């Protein structure tokens, strides 16, 4: 099984609020279809970021920090609506490409506690996978027992699902070739990355609002997953160029590979 994330910077224009890169999304859907045609037994769970949809709205209303007043709860509902528009667009493009995709927005069943995801309905997702369907999750709002409300990143949803579904590969597709050792010059791509390495390099920050913590937080969460599931291969790579996503789904290992412990000598 593969967990695939389509990053928000890849499928939206982060400089323009609520603007999807529909041509890119359409191409990625076709590449997924072609990869599955080569490997028809492959099970795939797709997640996607919110990019210029959810992040902009959540930053405006402060939803990631919680909700308590009527105005903040109205903002919570607005963030849900904006994020759901992108989610529906992603699912529709996947289906238009002939893929049996179904949306499973976390807000429908997720409960968090002080920002930590503690409950999410997994049986429907597991059933969908067993029946050959492609579940699609996303960064989303969630009710929180401490804060009232919060925002869950796709990585946090993956972290909840991974120990229960045991993926063999985690593919994080974005616009950058991987993690660079010399941000912002970005001339030295790291072939591998461990938590020790992360402490020694500066990971690029998002230029647009990212209420889920930016690239550094996403890398740390992915490393948490690798350390919990050391048999899982995890890659951060670019799907900006045609063919890149299909190659990764077909077994290639582009970009930066995340490793538990120290890299091999």
Descriptive key words:
globular; four-stranded mixed β-sheet; 9 helices; 265 residues; Carbamate kinase; 12 strands; eight-stranded mixed β-sheet; alpha/beta
Detailed description of the structure:
This protein is α/β, with parallel strands linked by helices. It has nine helices and twelve strands. Strands 3-6-2-1-9-11-12-10 form an eight-stranded mixed beta sheet, with helices on both faces. It has a four-stranded mixed beta sheet with strand order 5-4-7-8. Strand 7 and strand 8 form a beta hairpin. It starts with a strand and ends in a 7-residue tail after the last strand.
Number of strands: 12
Number of helices: 9
Unreliably modeled segments: 205-213
Largest sheet, spatial ordering of strands? 3-6-2-1-9-11-12-10
Series of secondary-structure elements, N-terminal to C-terminal? EHHEHHEEEHEEEHEEHHEHE
CATH architecture: 3-Layer(aba) Sandwich
The helix fraction, in percent, is: 40-55%
Query: Averaging pLDDT over every residue, what do you get?
Result: 90
Tally of individual domains: 1
The value of Rg in angstroms is 17 Å
The best one-word shape is: globular
| Assigned CATH superfamily | Acetylglutamate kinase-like
Strand percentage lies at 15-25%
Largest sheet: 8 strands, mixed
Could you name the CATH topology? Carbamate kinase
Termini separation: 29 Å
> Structural class of the secondary structure composition?
alpha/beta
CATH class: Alpha Beta
